[in-house]
Amino acid sequence: MILLKNKLAPSLLLIQLVSACGNNNQITEPNIHYDTVKKVDTNFSHHYPAPTGDFRVGVKELDIQSYHEDIVSPNFGELRNLHIKIFYPSHTQSTKYQAYFNKWGDQQSYLESMRPANAPIHPEQHLLSDMLSWSVANAPVALNENVGWPILYYSHGLGLFEIDNTELLESLASHGFVVVAINHTYLSGVTTFDSGKTAHLYLPEGKQDVTMPAGRVYFDNTVALQIGQDVTTVHEWLLWNQWSLEDQVNLHNVGTLGFSLGGSAAMNGCQQLDNCKAAANMDGIVLGHVAKSPLNKPLLLLSADQPFAQLDKVFEANQATTHMVTIAGSEHNDFTDQNRWIIGTATAIEADKIHRVVKQSMVRFFKANLENQTFTLPKEEGIKVLSK
């Protein structure tokens, strides 16, 4: 259970990239106040609205082993291992929804460990373990009578998890996309494999701060390279394992999206994949190859009112169709489900509004670029749109 007293915490990406850590494996504790007393609200289990698409949502979890060396691992010579969570369209009528967080409890424990002691009780608090998703495990994949469902690869923010945008990913799946959420090992708060083995966030000493020369070089040349390669690794694995999704995917019709650090994974991954038709970046710092050589594919940029990333420069640099949506009152963390995990006084923008705008923008953008549908962005008060 994690509760917010005044406003949402700065994202873990901001904490890690801007403030160097004293311990290689320890996340700097944010200056926020959470509740410390457990109390279960038994009136509901879902803490966010159901997906609005025509399909129900199935989900599978898989481990992938790469033959590439893991260049962000603290263990020399280790091969890259990844855990992925796949959301997909289904016609299942089951209501045996999966828990929002993983079955091992380590994601909740990790978030619990971020709470300062002696925080006041909040009347709306709920247990993280009490949260349900809207996904049904291993449900049959809906038949696509054409050439298979288009596929999207999602990358999380630094120090978060593959589930940090479950509400968005389920929405995309309900509208006819297979969405693969990648847990970027050693760059997530915790990675748990099917065996129960875990790997935790690791940043080498002296290289945690992207605003300092050594940190910038590490993130540009190592972290960005690894997370971009993770996207291509998962794509190559699926090319040989389409049976895991009942051969209902179209791996020639690809898009990528990411939040914060994951925005760089999305843009670099899309640049490397010939079949990638479009990418979306949610308030993400741009690192690696795309920071020097623009993506030049259709690009959707979602920017906070107080942006963490300088996405206006990315907007100008991209030579393909580009849209930048700035949402008044929003903050960096609003582009994840954190305001669903933390029940309390929200940021300046109402939680349902920010999620609605993000989901509509993403669905319409990828429908336009992967399915050739007409594209319109949401028109609401406080939404600023630039297009070229």
Q: Which helices and strands, and how do they pair?
A:
Elements: H1 12-18, E1 56-69, E2 79-90, E3 97-99, H2 106-112, E4 132-137, E5 149-155, H3 166-174, E6 178-183, E7 190-192, E8 198-200, H4 213-240, E9 249-259, H5 261-272, E10 276-282, H6 289-292, E11 299-304, H7 311-317, E12 322-327, H8 338-341, H9 351-371, E13 383-387
Parallel strand pairs: 1-4, 5-6, 5-9, 9-10, 10-11, 11-12
Antiparallel strand pairs: 1-2, 2-6, 3-4, 7-8, 12-13
Helix pairs in contact: 3-9, 4-5
Considering the chains and any ligands shown, give keywords for the structure.
388 residues; alpha/beta; eleven-stranded mixed beta sheet; two-stranded antiparallel sheet; 9 helices; 13 strands; 26% helix; globular; disordered N terminus
Strand order of the largest sheet: 3-4-1-2-6-5-9-10-11-12-13
Radius of gyration using CA atoms only: 19 Å
Given helix and strand content, the structural type is alpha/beta
Q: What about the largest sheet? A: 11 strands, mixed
Describe this structure in words.
The N and C termini lie far apart (43 Å). Helix 4 packs across helix 5 (261-272). The model is unreliable at 1-44 (pLDDT under 50). The chain has nine helices and 13 strands. Strands 3-4-1-2-6-5-9-10-11-12-13 form an eleven-stranded mixed sheet, sandwiched between helices. The chain has helices spanning 12-18, 106-112, 166-174, 213-240, 261-272, 289-292, 311-317, 338-341, 351-371; strands at 56-69, 79-90, 97-99, 132-137, 149-155, 178-183, 190-192, 198-200, 249-259, 276-282, 299-304, 322-327, 383-387. The protein has 388 residues and is an alpha/beta fold. Helix 7 links the parallel strand 11 (299-304) and strand 12 (322-327).
